[in-house]
Amino acid sequence: CICLSALPLFIETNVIAIAAVALVGESAATSAITSMVNSAASKSQCKFPDHATPACVSGNPCGFQCSDGFTPSPAKKPTDCVCEPPKTVCNGRWEGSGTCASRGEGWMACGVFGGAARAWECIDTINDLESCGGCAIPLTPYTPFGVDCTAIPGVADVSCLSGSCIVHRCLPGYMRTSDASECVRAHVSSPAFAHTESQAWELEIPAKDYGLEHNPLKH
């Protein structure tokens, strides 16, 4: 069988078509073959999905092959080209997880907040504050879920090291846990404790953070 969309290639590669072009010219040969296809009793009007290339076969004149890494679906007499999990799509092309992984250890394909359903970007989950240890917006059930270190309650200074949130300092009224993974409410047992905690906080915070570096204080 032959598809009209593939007619230019057919004329260039088929021996009989090449001979016809030599005898009557390309325009006349193309017109004659088009007329033959349109008048055939078994002709079919075909519609192809995205990422499909027409490839009519015996018993299925509307057959096609999928390109860009997509897979025909269903397996018998397919009607669509799909991207099967855990594969993802970027800019209309299939991309495997190796696309990001090739950048180095910890790089993953993660979803984009506010983006399209299959939109993604490569993120360094070993060091990224908002996707620490995994993706804040996982693409598939196979994608590790990460932590937004900046969203830890009571945190003032935090970093993502080797895929884990490390708290360096907490807000007043909070204390770091022994493993520095989070901040917990401090239990103030006496005014002296509260005063000591306040002094320690003020020593750690630069004056410029309070907007006072150019305003000398008077006693």
Q: What can you see in these coordinates?
A:
It is a single chain. This protein is α+β, with helices and mostly antiparallel strands and 219 residues long. Among the domains are: 4-39, no CATH class; 52-82, no CATH class; 150-210, no CATH class. It is 22% helix and 22% strand. Strands 1-2 form a two-stranded antiparallel sheet. The chain has a two-stranded antiparallel ribbon with strand order 3-4. A hairpin with a 2-residue loop joins strand 9 (155-161) and strand 10 (164-170). Helix 1 packs across helix 2 and helix 2 packs across helix 3.
Strand element count: 12
**SSE sequence, one letter per element:** HHHEEEEEEHEEEEEEH
- Strand residue content: 15-25%
Number of helix segments?
A: 5
What is the overall silhouette? rod-shaped
Question: What brief labels describe this structure?
Answer:
single chain, about 220 residues, alpha+beta, two-stranded antiparallel sheet, 5 helices, about 20% helix, rod-shaped, disordered C terminus
